[in-house]
Amino acid sequence: MKITLIPGDGIGPEITESARNIVDALDIGIEWEVVAAGEAVFNKQGTLIPDDVYESIEKNKIVLKGPIMTPIGKGFRSVNVALRKKYDLYANIRPVKSLGTIPSLTKDLDLILFRENTEDLYAGVEKQISDDEAHSIKIITRSASERIVREAFEYAKANDRQSVTVVTKANIMKLTDGLFLDVARGVAEEYPSIEFKEILVDNMAMQLVINPKQFDVIVTENLYGDILSDLMAGLVGGLGLVPGVNIGEDISIFEAVHGSAPDIAGKGLANPTAILLGVCQMLDHIEQKDASNRIRNALDTVLSDSNNFTKDLGGEMTTKGFTDAVIKAL
Question: pTM for this structure?
Answer without folding.
Answer: 0.92
